[in-house]
Amino acid sequence: MEKKWPGLPYYPISQFYTNHFGGKVYKIPVSVVDNCPNRMGLKGMETCIFCDIWGSAAKSESLTMPLDEQITKYHQVIEKKYKAKYFLIYFQAYTNTFTKISQLRDNFSKALEYPFVKGLVVGTRPDCLSPAVFKLWTEFHEKSFVAVELGVQSFFDDQLQFLKRGHTRAQSIEALHKISQNTPVDLGIHLMFGLPNETDERIIETAEIINHLPISNVKLHNLHVLKHTPLEQLYLAGEFTPIEKEEYARKVKLFLQHLSPRVAVHRLAALSSRREELVAPAWTGNKMETHQFIVNALRSDGSYQSQYYHPQSDQDHVASLNLQKQASPYTLQNNIEP
Ligand code: SF4
What we know:
alpha/beta, TIM Barrel, seven-stranded parallel beta sheet, globular, binds iron/sulfur cluster
């Protein structure tokens, strides 16, 4: 099976990029917004319990830098380190559609002025979408690669409530279908494992839900504790215990075994961008060691992505995509706009 994905027992996003762009592509993470509906407390929402003050930005200093400065600085660093040629600008921190359309358009245009930039990646939430955002993504898709990463985190409402996400499973699924119906963008989701009430049945159901959704990729995180977050308070009070590395690897393996081979995987576990901010578990601080541990767990008994996946699901998926493309106009419920 590793022949299918050279050197790895799962379909890595790097393979997807190589197929799409003809070479390795690196992401430059940038910050252009500084808030989100949760942090603003709109509609009674609260900050997600795991989120630090940087809104999950990879580079905290980016928040005070103009976009062109961020692109120039991080391009130089990544180009030198990896001898990289192609880049995607990743609008990562906070909620990137929670701002004015004119502002978004200016930022997208500015990013595409750089000859080494091959596309845009936009991170957002399931409840911060609008017809105007869809139109903008479609407009930019005509001149560039555009990918959207939706913070879904879990498909179980009790877990979403624990995380204080402020949206439901139904909203996530509706949002993914609406993006697929109304735009041509490449679509992916972020997921978290290591949550309360997480059973093996739920892990398998999560993979099966994804197999039937119009998405092409998934990014995996283990729920971990950062300083000055609501989760830190729960952890210090003994009300949350981070998942152990072995158990997390077992769950990732189970998930991948049931995941369709057409879904690319960005990463297998969370990264800790700021080591000094990490409270627990300590193993989250060692990116490469954790990655290799999970890969080894898969290889130890010949496990691989799609091992228990039933091809019938893909036919269902294609059929459902065709139906969705003919569906009605955008009607997301309870949507939030700035
Ligand atoms: S994770 Fe995203 S939506 Fe949640 S509080 Fe942080 S920036 Fe806001």
